[in-house]
Amino acid sequence: MNEPVETDKDGNALTLIDLIDDGVDIHEQVDLLIRSKQLYRFLDKCLDSRELDIIIYRYGLYGRKPHTQSETAARLGISRSYVSRIEKKAIEKLKRMYDTTPF
User: Could you give the CA distance from residue 39 to residue 103 in angstroms, rounded to a whole number?
Assistant: First the structure.
């Protein structure tokens, strides 16, 4: 990626990364992709079915539209505060997985 592939009009070497650079940090994109893949593995590994349903519905995972806690509560027939507690517990479980699992 950093090998010179041609030169610009001033004679400066251009690398492949220079030619395809769109202003987005490649390292950041790779990190996000790795963490996203980890998240999907962790969802099934550490959440129970109710926690999983709430996290998927709330945050719009698997290509779905995100919803509010109130919408989630109405869908599941539970109170908004109960959705909040379950969501908080699920996020804490996921955070522990991230903290204890190496890349």
Answer: 11
Q: What is the CA radius of gyration of the chain?
A: 21
Residue 20 to residue 35: CA distance in whole angstroms:
24
pLDDT digits (tens, 9 = 90+) for 55-81: 999 999 999 999 999 999 999 999 999
Q: Phi and psi of 4, rounded to 5°? A: -60, 135
Residue 64, both tokens: 């779905």
Cβ count near 61 (within 10 Å): 15
Model confidence over 6-61: pLDDT tens digits? 767 787 777 766 656 566 677 788 888 888 899 999 999 999 999 999 999 999 99
- Residue written as token pair 């869908």: 75
Is the distance from CB of 25 to CB of 17 less than 8 angstroms?
no
The two tokens of residue 80 are: 């908004």
